[in-house]
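This section describes the prediction task in plain terms. A model, or a person checking by hand, is given the sequence of a single protein chain and must write out its three-dimensional structure as a string of tokens. No templates, partner chains or ligands are provided. The sample shown here is typical of the held-out split.
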Amino acid sequence: MENTKRLHGAPVWAALSGASMDSSREFMSSIRTLSAKWLLAIVVIGLALCTQVAQASPSQKPEAVAERAYLYGLQQAIFYGQRWIYTQNDAETNDIYSGLNRFFWVRKQITPDFPVVTPNATTLYGSGFLDLRDGPVVIEVPEITDRYFSVQVMDPYGIFRMIVGSPFNGTKARKYILIPPGFSGEVPTDFPTTDIVQWPSKTAYGVVRMAVMTGAEAEIKKINAYQDQVTMTPLADWLANGHKGVAQADRDIVPGDYVIPAGLPEYAVGQVDKQTAEQYFTLLHIILNDPTMPVLEDSLLEAEMLDQLKSIGIGSGLAFDWSKLKPKKRAALEAGFKAGFESVRTTLKTNLINMNGWGVVRNDGGFETRWMDRAVIADAAWAAPDKNISHGGAFLFTDADGKPLSGANKYTMTFDMNDLPPVTQFWSIPIYDANGYFVANEINRYTVNSFMLAAGDLVVSDGKLVIYIQHEKPSDPDQLKNWLPAPAEGFRFTTRYYGPYAPLTSGTYNMPKVVKV
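The expected answer:
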């Protein structure tokens, strides 16, 4: 028992050695001195090993950094390229050039003569870039009670931080003020706090959508009148105009003055498929030095990415020059760029939610950290509506047998009238060629939608709505009414669901397949 008490009451090493207390103190002092030296040595060795591990970490190698940087920056790069097209490319061939703080308006239903990828003919829309370097910008919208409309504004990361309109906050006329970071002036008393938007950057992209129900000339004119009443006005001009928005027709085009990287005019249109590794990384470097496009300062993931980019010479305050890179590093960045491109394209095809054969794009937001999702949306349909607006990402490339869709065949798509796509607003199913463009046809029909069904333009029989999809004009009059003309060769679909219920975003809705006749 005594020995046991001693073992618990004194240092174990002393009890086991049988040493006296004095010698124990001397020994203890020596051990402490040696321990401190050994501890220092161990710490130094450990730090060296950690440094070696960090240097050898695959995520730090130039090729891996480049691949990760592609996912991280693709959305921002396209934002920059689109901003140049809207605000700086004043070429005669550029119809959407509109300058800063102005909308480009689509004033008629989109047809094949308007070469937009995966267009939507069931809305007329306006889009443009806001510039908040000189202070807030005011967006005004008139009262619109007879149709769906929405306004959404996106930051450089693809996050829609403002979403308003008929399904969200009503149909009355409203005005919104976007406040840039660092603004120290007074916000006018005209704005309720619900309509004051604190914006995280000094640049933004806005989109306005208005539903087209019949496409008749009178309806289009009415929508055009609404468009003319939507204004985007810098606060100083708004105040000078008696606290009212200035009509766009009364405002001059103010061009952007952002840095234009070499080659941007040649690759900005069709950017993802055209840009090279040199162009992409040069542009990414310019973006990280653009004061209008700040980074997410409170994101550890972003901070880690920025540190890794600095390892290859890209970042704020650095001087990146592709031509001065050593051949080995240049080859690594090119390999990483290619790997990033391929991973995004592969993910787009393989990571879709299967909705009875239709592929639903995962667009649940979280773009601050979910870079692959952000890159996939940017590649597939840059500035695609937030899921709260429309789940417009259900793709179909094959028939019910898994074979590519072809205009050489005839197909049907059959809806149960008791199980139509569940939406609060409307649905639309446009048809495109294999590259995503409308193709001219003799009846000028490029989509079928719920408005056509409600108006009685489509034939319903025995509780079924059968859409006939083929290149050749049907001879049967009922089939002709329900005919969706197909291109002569390959084609595909990309649906639009405005105000989707959960089954359309989760992929649990039983979307009808396209069946070869």
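For orientation: Confidence is low (pLDDT under 50) at residues 1-56.
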